[in-house]
Structure formats: structure tokens, C-alpha cells
Specification:
Elements (H helix, E strand, L loop, with lengths): L6 E11 L5 E12 L4 E5 L6 H9 L6 E10 L2 E2 L5 H7 L4 E4 L3 H4 L6 H12 L4 H14 L5 H4 L9 H12 L6 E5 L7 H18 L2 E6 L2 H7 L2 E6 L2 E7 H6 L4 H8 L39 H5 L5 E4 L2 E3 L2 H4 L11 H7 L1
Parallel strand pairs: 3-8, 3-9, 6-7, 7-8
Antiparallel strand pairs: 1-2, 1-4, 4-5, 9-10, 10-12, 11-12
Helix pairs in contact: 4-5, 5-7, 7-8
């Protein structure tokens, strides 16, 4: 990996200003880096801030939302200093994004070919004919058996899996440095999910690009990621390698996520569950955002929010169990799940 990261996000804060002076702190002080050729996964329940983080990187936050602080540097260049015109050139060229449901990202009234041609010609100095040839090449690359025919078809004529392949072809058409995949396979059936994720990894290797993979599926993380960020309440609560997230789980929230997974090795009448639900981003508690749901909550947790601490060279956790020097270990509790997943 390069010493200089492809993407460096520092103290990112994206807030939504709602009626009655409510402020939803959807992303609240997030820091992370992605290196060349690396797959970084962001995991968490719905409402944890995963998708808002990825949309902030693309600068696709609409009112009442606003990025209020932080830096987002692509190869050292802060994207938050760019004009909307400059960002239009960067989106699709240097950074591309694949969304959860391709029908919302593809225009239903234009053919697949014309949409990818438009993307290519917007960023590359190619004739219409050369761009069409490039699209056929891309569609073949992502697994279309009849690329020339698909060029002239509309999104509704393709299955969900094929639409997502078309989105991948569009995303990689300009050889981006970073690809953001926001739940890229959730809307698809299990067999097609694996095909799409395998295809993404194949394209990553072929183009030597980096991937930010947004998901709620820890099985996907185990299979495809290099490093993992666990998000809760708009903040990172644990950050480490994919092996350590299963074998040396630290944060009570991550443990709860792992214990909710079915096991092939032991029979249980009822799967584990994290009590309660993620609070709305405008009603986060005063202290630790997980305090009301945590089985290890202490008085200090309700008073102030812990910092994200380094507890090992490649492992960070936001929890007073470690700040107080307890080193509370949950390694074995996650072990069974880890052995199945890795």
C-alpha cells in the first residue's frame, strides 16, 4: 500500500437543520483513510450514518443537510474547497459511486448505452463512435453476454442483477481512483449478490482502485473487506482489520451485531439481539451514544462521550471499558462467528 492515502477524511461533520431548531448530527466527527487497492467497509444499522458519510464524500448532501466541518482529501486535495462545477468533473471521473437500487440511479427514458456514453464523453475526449466502442468493451468486461444488444435496451428491460452490472460498467468507465459502493447488492437475491460483489473485487484488482464498501452485512465484510469501520450514532465506535473485528471484537455494539448472527456450529433457541433501536440523530444522548442499549453501561457513559482510542496498533474503540484500563475482552464471545465467516 502507498504511504499516502487515496482518501483521507478528517473530523467530518454533516448536520441536518430541521424544524423547531432540531439539529440532526448524522455524521459527527468521522476520521478515516483509504489506501490504494484497499477495500474499507463501513458497517452499522440503518440510521448509523454510513450512507450520509458516503454522500458527503461525493458532496451530494442536499438541504436541510450541510457539511459543517472537516476535510475530505482525495490524494491530498481537499474536495470541500471545490466549486460545484469542479466537483462535477471529479464525480464519475476520480470518484464513482454505485447505489443500492440501480433503478433509481439509471434514467428510465434513456438506453443503457446512451447513459454510459454520456458519462464517458463528459470526462474523456472521445468521439461518439469511440465512446460506444468503449461501452461495448465495458459491458463485456462486467459479464454481459450480448453487449451490443444491451447498448440499445432500457433499464426496465434488464433484471436487477444486470442493471447493477450496467451501473458498475458506468462507474468504472473513467477508471476512478475510488469507488464507493453503497449497499451494492442488498436489493438482489443471494446468488446474484455474490456475483456482483465478486465482480466488484475483480474490477478493483484489474484497475488497482480503492473501494469504500457501505454495508450492514458482516458476512460481506468477512469475505470482501481489508479493514472495517463500525459506525453508530454518526460516529466510528470501532476500527480495525477484518480479522480482528471477528476474532478480537472490542466494542459492545460490535459484539451485539456479531451475536445476532446465526451460527452453524451451535444451536440456539433465540439469536442475540441489541435491545432498543438507534436513536434519531437529533435525539442522541448526552454521553456515549450507545449507553441506553449497552449491557456494560456505567455512570460515566451517561455523562460524557468517550474518545476513539487506540487499544492496539491497528485497533481503535470508543468505549470507557478501555479508557479506564479494564481492557474488557470479548474475544471468545465472537470467536465462533468469526471462525465461520473467515
Amino acid at each position: 500500500m502507498k504511504e499516502n492515502p487515496v482518501l483521507e477524511v478528517s473530523n467530518l461533520k454533516t448536520y441536518f437543520y430541521l424544524e423547531n431548531n432540531f439539529v440532526a448530527r448524522a455524521v459527527d466527527g468521522v476520521d478515516f483513510t483509504i489506501h490504494q487497492g484497499e477495500t474499507l467497509a463501513i458497517v452499522g444499522e440503518s440510521g448509523s450514518g454510513k450512507s450520509i458519510t458516503s454522500l458527503s464524500i461525493m458532496q451530494l448532501i442536499n438541504k436541510p443537510g450541510k457539511i459543517v466541518d472537516g476535510t475530505i482529501c482525495l490524494e491530498g486535495d481537499n474536495l470541500l474547497t471545490k466549486s460545484s462545477k469542479q466537483m462535477t468533473k471529479i464525480r464519475g471521473n476520480d470518484i464513482a459511486m454505485i447505489f443500492q437500487e440501480p433503478m433509481t440511479a439509471l434514467n428510465p427514458v434513456y438506453t443503457i448505452g446512451s447513459q454510459i456514453v454520456e458519462t464517458i464523453r463528459k470526462h474523456k475526449n472521445l468521439s461518439k463512435h469511440a465512446a460506444r466502442e468503449r461501452v461495448i468493451e465495458l459491458l463485456n468486461l462486467v459479464g454481459f453476454p450480448r453487449a451490443k444488444e444491451v447498448m440499445n435496451e432500457y433499464p426496465h428491460q434488464l433484471s436487477g442483477g444486470m442493471r447493477q452490472r450496467a451501473m458498475i460498467a458506468m462507474a468504472i468507465s473513467c477508471d476512478p481512483k475510488l469507488l464507493i459502493a453503497d449497499e451494492p447488492s442488498t436489493a438482489l437475491d443471494v446468488t446474484i449478490q455474490a456475483q456482483i460483489l465478486d465482480l466488484l473485487m475483480e474490477m478493483k484488482e484489474r484497475l488497482n482502485m480503492s473501494i469504500l464498501l457501505v454495508t450492514h452485512d458482516l458476512g460481506v465484510v468477512a469475505e470482501y473487506a481489508d479493514r472495517v469501520l463500525v459506525m453508530y450514532g454518526g460516529q466510528i465506535v470501532e476500527e480495525t482489520t477484518v480479522e480482528a473485528i471477528f476474532e478480537e471484537t472490542k466494542h459492545p455494539y460490535t459484539i451485539g451485531l456479531l451475536e445476532s448472527l446465526p451460527s452453524l456450529e451451535k444451536e440456539v433457541k433465540r439469536l442475540g439481539a441489541i435491545k432498543g433501536s438507534v436513536p434519531p440523530a437529533y435525539l442522541f444522548p448526552k454521553g456515549c451514544r450507545f449507553a441506553d442499549r449497552c449491557p456494560h453501561v456505567m455512570d460515566q457513559c451517561r455523562e460524557s462521550n468517550p474518545e476513539l482510542l487506540s487499544i492496539a496498533p491497528t485497533h481503535k474503540a470508543r468505549c470507557y471499558l478501555y479508557e479506564l484500563g479494564g481492557g474488557h475482552s470479548h474475544d471468545n464471545r465472537a470467536k465462533t462467528t468469526a471462525e465461520q465467516k473467515i
